């Protein structure tokens, strides 16, 4: 149980508002010492983990590109594009994005979109432009932004479970095996399809209600 001391260090460090990076490093060393590892082994484990997950640093290349595009008017272009489309509404646009997010997540392409890559620079401004065309009230802008972020989350969360190799499927398989229930990942992913369909219908209904609200000029 001493290896759990690292959790106490993290909780205490964040509570006292110490530097997060320093807290995590100290927590890792406390956990390593509690597990009987020497300092060299702990540092080696750090290096191995970084080497195995070095792809995460790709975000440092993506974010500057998105920033430059926004500075050059990416959001304005996106709003102008929606403004020129007949029949485009915030609900319909977000429903299409929900379908896109679920399908791509089901294929394992979880990083093809996201809050930083697509929602903030593209999806949210386009939904806002559509809401303005529908005559939405001024206080509906934040609601539309929140719904755009929620759409991305719902699409990813309920779509990725259909993919065989996603961590949640493997976690469920391991937990069920612990209780003597033997299932293949394919069986779990198949049963995730009805849940994904239900999530699409439920959130799609919420988006339909959003359209109705915006069409009434924000009237409740």
From TrEMBL:
The keyword Translocase does not apply. Coiled coil: none annotated. The chain crosses the membrane at residues 7-33, 53-69, 162-182, 188-210. Keywords: Membrane, Transmembrane, Transmembrane helix. Signal peptide: none annotated. Pfam families: DUF969 (PF06149). This is DUF969 domain-containing protein. The lineage of its organism: Bacteria, Pseudomonadati, Pseudomonadota, Alphaproteobacteria, Sphingomonadales.
């Amino acid at each position: 149980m001493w290896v759990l001391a690292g959790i106490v260090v993290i909780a205490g460090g964040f509570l006292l508002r110490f530097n997060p990076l320093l807290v995590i490093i100290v927590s890792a060393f406390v956990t390593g010492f509690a597990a009987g590892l020497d300092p060299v082994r702990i540092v080696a484990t750090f290096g191995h983990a970084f080497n195995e997950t070095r792809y995460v640093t790709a975000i440092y290349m993506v974010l500057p590109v998105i920033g430059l595009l926004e500075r050059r008017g990416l959001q304005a272009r996106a709003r102008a594009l929606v403004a020129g489309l007949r029949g485009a509404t915030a609900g319909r646009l977000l429903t299409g994005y929900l379908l896109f997010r679920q399908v791509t997540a089901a294929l394992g392409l979880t990083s093809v979109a996201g809050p930083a890559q697509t929602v903030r620079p593209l999806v949210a401004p386009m939904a806002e432009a559509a809401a303005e065309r529908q005559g939405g009230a001024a206080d509906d802008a934040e609601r539309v932004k929140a719904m755009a972020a929620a759409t991305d989350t719902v699409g990813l969360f309920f779509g990725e479970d259909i993919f065989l190799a996603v961590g949640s499927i493997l976690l469920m398989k391991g937990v069920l095996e612990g209780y003597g229930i033997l299932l293949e990942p394919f069986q779990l992913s198949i049963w995730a399809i009805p849940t994904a369909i239900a999530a699409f219908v439920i959130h799609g209904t919420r988006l339909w209600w959003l359209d109705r609200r915006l069409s009434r000029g924000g009237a409740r």
